[in-house]
TrEMBL record:
Pfam families: MTS (PF05175). CDD domains: AdoMet_MTases. It comes from Streptomyces pseudovenezuelae. Keywords: Methyltransferase, Transferase. Residues 1-26, 71-94 are annotated as: Disordered. One of its GO terms (biological process) is methylation. PROSITE patterns: N6_MTASE. This is Methylase of polypeptide subunit release factors. One of its GO terms (molecular function) is methyltransferase activity. Residues 166-318 form the Methyltransferase small domain. InterPro entries: DNA_methylase_N6_adenine_CS, N5-glutamine_MTase, SAM-dependent_MTases_sf, Small_mtfrase_dom.
Length: 381
């Protein structure tokens, strides 16, 4: 484990270094407090120096905001294409995360933050990090994300298709974009599932919060197996399945993509993979970014072998990557055909989230043209 070291007064101190984004251990760490000027903090952070905060908690948040404003002052160069806009946006976001991630705080062995006016973070940190074991240095930016995730977990996300709320965990993609849930809620079930509902089986691959598995169960699928590769997602899905009273209908299994075991086939296999073929920079982005579309291709490659006769695979996918020049429609259709599958139907919907209408968003042109589709796939005969 990496250890961050600093000197306070004449005392040498250290703490375990933790970064959910995989940020490297800072090469140099200095102390900062309420007297630290934003310009000095921004300069040192840009140079790679970490600032370990010793002052008031609310002042630390204000300093972080002030550093962010200094990043925003730097004008971006004009983009020449949608793909250029995307990569420029990613570079800017990466730079922002790298610089703002240099403002650090230390949590003690009980996740207590010994700063003036600091909130009680113990429950939020236990939910995100697990049991406390030793003092830990984290970026204030990450810690604010942990606090926000805790609030989302308590409040939950309203899902009209379920007439209930789903409670996301830290690092698990929240179903705030309801259009993909609505597609699964209204697409016609395969005929075999409608004709024999008592024996119908579905797989929900990459279940996340478990929301799509719950929708399928509420629609009458007798048995749903929900999988994910993330231990956090598996724990989150199990909790939501229990909250919704669906433990007798939904089995949460993993880590893995397709379920393992003797019952490897289903009448319906649903997959909502990350929509953009790009490298995620943190746990939350794993629900949106997937390098080389690995999950998409894994779903397509394994689908035929996991369908019962008359079964369907439902691929829920946005065409945002196409508008950004990251993937073509021909590439997607070729991958479908190469996997021994054919398209028997498609249901489209337009995004309803605010960013689709935000003209100041750097990706506005692509977002405003985006369509989310449910592709109905069957095995070639």
């Amino acid at each position: 484990m990496s250890t961050i070291n600093w000197t306070q007064g004449h005392t040498h101190r250290s703490a375990h270094w933790h970064s959910e984004n995989g940020a490297p251990l800072p090469k140099r760490t200095v102390l900062a407090d309420d007297r630290t000027k934003a310009d000095d903090a921004y300069r040192q952070a840009c140079e790679g120096t970490a600032l370990l905060w010793q002052g008031d908690f609310h002042n630390a948040r204000q300093l972080l905001q002030a550093m962010g404003r200094r990043i925003d002052r730097k004008p971006s160069r004009p983009s020449t294409s949608p793909s250029d806009s995307f990569h420029q946006h990613r570079r800017s976001s990466s730079h922002r995360a790298r610089v703002l991630g240099k403002l650090l705080v230390v949590l003690d062995g009980d996740y207590n933050l010994a700063l003036r006016r600091a909130p009680d973070l113990r429950q939020a940190c236990q939910e995100a990090y697990g049991p406390a074991t030793e003092p830990m240095a984290v970026s204030l930016r990450e810690l604010l994300g942990v606090i926000g995730a805790h609030q989302w977990r308590l409040k939950g996300v309203d899902v009209p298709a379920l007439s209930a709320r789903v409670h996301p965990h830290y690092g698990v993609f929240a179903p705030v974009r309801g259009e993909y849930v609505d597609l699964v809620a209204r697409a016609p079930l395969p005929a075999v599932a409608r004709q024999l509902p008592a024996s119908s089986t579905a797989f929900d691959l990459g279940t996340g919060t478990g929301v799509l598995a719950a929708v399928l169960a509420r629609r009458g699928i007798n048995r749903v197996v929900a999988t994910d590769i993330s231990p956090r997602a598996l724990a989150c899905a199990r909790e939501n399945v229990h909250r919704l009273g669906l433990t007798d209908r939904i089995e949460v299994s993993g880590p893995g993509l397709f379920p393992e075991g003797p019952e490897r086939r289903a009448d319906l296999v649903v997959c909502n993979p990350p929509w953009l073929p790009a490298r995620p920079t943190g746990p939350i982005e794993q629900g949106v970014h997937d390098p080389d579309s690995t999950m998409l291709h894994g779903f397509l490659a394994g689908l035929s072998a996991h369908l019962r006769p008359g079964g369907e695979g439902w691929l829920i996918l946005s065409d945002l990557a196409e508008h950004l020049g990251l993937r073509t429609r021909r590439h997607l259709l070729d991958a479908v055909g190469a996997a021994g599958l054919r398209v028997v139907g498609r249901i489209d919907t337009k995004p309803r989230h605010p960013r689709a209408k935000d003209a100041d968003d750097p990706l506005h042109t692509a977002r405003s043209a985006e369509t989310t589709s449910l592709w109905r796939l069957v095995a070639m005969e």
